[in-house]
Amino acid sequence: MTGLRYVYAVCRPFDLPLQSQLTGIGGAPPALLHHHGLVAVVSSVSEADFSEEALKAHLEDLDWLAATARAHQGVIDALATVTTPLPLRLATVFRDCSGVRAMIEAGEDGFRRALDRLAGRVEWGVKVYVEPEPEQTEPAPAAAKPASGRDYLRRRRERSHAHEEKWQRAEAFARSLHERLARQAEDSRLHAPQNAALSTAPGQNVLNGAYLVTRANSEEFVELVDRTKDEVPGIRVELTGPWAAYSFTEEESGAER
After folding, report:
1. How many helices (H) and strands (E) does the chain have?
2. E strands, 12-101, where?
3. How much is the pTM?
């Protein structure tokens, strides 16, 4: 294996084979590097793309970042079907295999604790959005002009009050949903809401939660989410997963998402 070593994840040895056509960064197939009873899942990448200077330049290239993230995630998803992986941060690169082995030795105790804790468990993501106001296909009827300044201020207060009530309902629903899901899960994390300007999802994100659930209880967890989707008009609930437990690997292993 020539080039730098890109590391996707650390896991325990496993018997089931990975997908035969699986490729990672740059189209290279991932390989397994065994050390101290653990496995680093790696592939070879070029220094032209992953040296320190090259990575600085690539951070400004959103297309390159998106393609790299998809390839990274593809390997993690494949691993999650055969074992419990601890995903490492995007673009975790070492000069050679000895650097990867040193990384395993330095984090060995934390890796083992995290793998024990996460075995047989997956991450589910739940997001709650306030739906955008529907677009009008026909011109709205012209409202009568305010009869006075007082009438104008009253209308403004009514619109503001309706908007505030909508957000209060959404936030109350998000809190209630998170509490219900957290009781069903073994652990949970609340991430910052997605920035509406950067997200492609319509609406305003008011809950961005991650939930650690055993595989055996995942069907019941999904059914619970499904039952909540029509509880509040104007609110959209989205479920994603099952994923490798990205949100729950850092505390014990020191691995970065």
Report:
1. 7, 9
2. 31-35, 38-45, 86-87, 93-94
3. 0.78
